[in-house]
Amino acid sequence: xxxxxxxxxxxxxxxxxxxxxxxxxxxxxxxxxxxxxxxxxxxxxxxxxxxxxxxxxxxxxxxxxxxxxxxxxxxxxxxxxxxxxxxxxxxxxxxxxxxxxxxxxxxxxxxxxxxxxxxxxxxxxxxxx
Length: 129
Hints:
Number of strands: 0
Oligomer: single chain
Largest sheet: none
Number of domains: 1
Radius of gyration: 15 Å
């Protein structure tokens, strides 16, 4: 992998992480989410998952767009990074009462398909296949 390839994947990671955290902060500040460290219920976890899906698809699209070649491969690598980060999150939070366990597991399971979808959208928009 060359520097442009690494940059494309890093850009996708940053888009997903920064975007998700900014929305988290806004929702905590607005009182939609409970204070940090307090458990979230199933509905709020579903809300968080919904916007994380949007950011992850967008991250896959961005990575594909910035990739110097083989956009789908780069987006799938981004998804693999998401799996690793998601698994770290599952391990770190498993015995903590922060919300439903399905939420953290969903982040792992959906990481690759979301990034794949973002790259697929990019390919369809750009006429690449």
